[in-house]
Amino acid sequence: MGEGEGDVDVEGAGAGEAPGDIAGTHDLAGKTIVITGASSGIGRSAATSLAAQGAEVAVVGRNEQRTTDIARRIGATAFVADFDSFADVRRLADALLNRYERIDVLANNAGGLVKKRALTEDGNERTIQSNHLSPFLLTSLLLPRLRENAKESPVRIIATASAGNRFGRIRLADLDRRNSAWLGGWLAYCTAKLANIVNTRELAARTEGSGIEAYAFHPGFVASSFAADTGLMRVATLAGNGHLGASPEVGAAPLVHLASVESTGSPSGTYFDGFTPNGRTSPQAGDPTLAARLWSLSERITGSEQ
Ligand SMILES: NC(=O)c1ccc[n+]([C@@H]2O[C@H](COP(=O)([O-])OP(=O)(O)OC[C@H]3O[C@@H](n4cnc5c(N)ncnc54)[C@H](OP(=O)(O)O)[C@@H]3O)[C@@H](O)[C@H]2O)c1
Question: Across-strand partners of 56?
């Protein structure tokens, strides 16, 4: 993506460890990058870094104050949308399409754990909607424009997934987990993150040869607002003497890297653990039939059939 930068060799780079060419040194002038979940944590840090490299950044957040604050601080444009609402996602897509003729990178980063089982106004379990269905809808609504843009130069769609995907289990007949164990929301969260990886592979297959590249990545264990209100995180923080996980800057580095390097060195559809391609996944991540069926189901639920 960055002008005048050579390819980056990611071989041997461990999770959370920047490859030789440190992310953050590209000239991204002229590039437009949309980052959801940019009001906090990993997304805020990635937005800050990408804006500092010259990109026009669209920061998307749920909390209006936090989102406009960060946008003002880094010279970006703020967009507010709650992913618990498909109507909000549709308004967001319209606003982005009106504002930008060209989008170079769409980073679907918003998400998190929802502790209590609850439904959105659209009737879906909140974790599955905010982490999988709403980013799916946003991507679908932007896709015709992204396909046009990709005819001129490559476009990237990046999903912030999680190593937790290995504990997820996609049941198409019970995507919402109404009839499945809850365990404080962790299983729904891990399932949604597995869906991010499955969907990234399906998106790569559907956009093959179009100039669109789709990637998913695990940011590492990052100290952010993620799951901060859960007993597990409170215990882990106490055990770590108040320190828990890497900084948001370290967690954002793989996202900044994927958004800015000229070539990722890996085929579209790749899931990275930090900077390392082909991170460990649930066996379901390699099932193309499941991926195609999840895509159709997500289209039906979000009303985004094309
Ligand atoms: N932290 C980790 O260890 C870790 C590990 C693996 C994956 N991840 C993933 O990394 C991504 C970023 O998380 P983070 O660690 O930076 O946590 P964070 O600080 O809580 O940031 C999450 C961002 O997503 C936004 N968001 C959450 N639910 C939303 C909704 N319903 N609608 C719109 N926006 C919503 C939040 O908005 P508000 O500011 O309004 O809350 C915030 O901007 C998430 O997808 C998370 O699942 C994190």
Answer: 32
**CB of 40 closer than 8 Å to CB of 29:** no
Ligand 1 centroid, distance to 97 Cα (angstroms): 24
Q: How confident is the model at residue 20 (pLDDT cuts 50, 70, 90)?
A: very low
Sequence-distant (≥ 6) Cβ neighbours of residue 153 within 8 angstroms? 104, 211
Rounded Cα–Cα distance for residues 57 and 23 (Å): 16
Whole-model pTM: value is 0.92
Residues 276 and 10 sit within 8 Å (Cβ to Cβ)? yes
Between 209 and 243, the more confident residue is 209
Domains of the chain (ranges; CATH) run 32-301 (3.40.50.720)
- pLDDT tens-digit series, residues 246-258: 889 999 999 999 9
Q: Which atom of ligand 1 is nearest to the CA of 37?
A: 43
- Mapped onto helix, strand or coil, the DSSP state of residue 22 is coil
Q: Scanning the structure block, which residue is given the tokens 């954002």?
A: 252
Q: Is 189 a catalytic residue?
A: yes
Report residues whose beta carbon is within 6 angstroms of any ligand 1 atom: 37, 39-43, 61-63, 66, 82-84, 109-112, 130, 160, 162, 218-219, 221-222, 224-226, 245
- β-strand pairing of 32-36 with 105-108: parallel
Kindly state the tokens that stand for 290: 């499941």
pLDDT by residue (tens digit) across 287-298?
999 999 999 999
C-alpha 260/C-alpha 299 separation (Å) is 30
Report the atom number in ligand 1 closest to the C-alpha of 67. 39
